[in-house]
Amino acid sequence: MLDRFRSVPVLFLGALTVILVGCGGPNLIERMQNPFGGICGLIILILDVIAIVEVINSSRSTGEKVLWCALIFFLPVLGLILYHFIGKK
Fold this sequence. Notes:
Number of helices: 6
Strand content: under 5%
Low-confidence stretches: none
Number of domains: 1
Structural class: mainly alpha
Distance between the termini: 14 Å
Largest sheet: none
Shape: globular
Radius of gyration: 13 Å
Order of helices and strands: HHHHHH
């Protein structure tokens, strides 16, 4: 029960990010080309890094890890939302 409440801040920040920048958002490559993406871009980047670290440290197979990391990398906002609702174990 306690594990559910730990992800509330991440879920709130993710929802706030979607509201502020819209669905889709820039991917990591676009963010590196334009380093002045603002606070919303920074929040998305931090949440993406947290999600990728969670995927890498999970007990999934290597193929699943690669797919989730690619999804989060190429579709940062949508990938983060899908991982939170579908991919977390």
